[in-house]
Amino acid sequence: MINSRNLDDLLPNVKTRVESFIKACQIAGIDILVTSTFRDNASQDALYAQGRTTAGKIVTNARGGDSFHNHRCAVDIVPLVNGKPDWDGSHPVWAQIGAIGQECGLEWAGLWKTFKELAHFQYTGGLTIAELKEGKVIA
Predict the structure, then answer these.
(1) Scanning 53, 110, 133, 135, which has its CA 20 to 30 A from the CA of 90?
(2) Which CATH architecture describes the domain 7-133?
(3) Mean pLDDT of 117-132
């Protein structure tokens, strides 16, 4: 199973935006860690099982192949607050991080109407999962 944190595993157009995002956070004095870039379908299915058929809380509604991570165009991050990861999303720095991500051309899942995911950023070039599955390429 593959659950990468390597920016080189992202599509080039996505990687460029994520690198700009990380740099802009650093300039703003915000330390972030990349926790996930590319996931293969088996890793995505394991995450999907969490909170359903395995222990833990539900962290995704996407099965293998149905996540933008599977198509190399999404990244998950966590900010370090006083040197420690803020996993629960309660710190106000999350709003600043979301705004910075958007300024860098990324979609922030923290603004989604359903299943908000503060840690998730993606660049899809306007393509849907179905289009990516058909082989369309992000410009």
Answers:
(1) 53
(2) 2-Layer Sandwich (3.30)
(3) 97
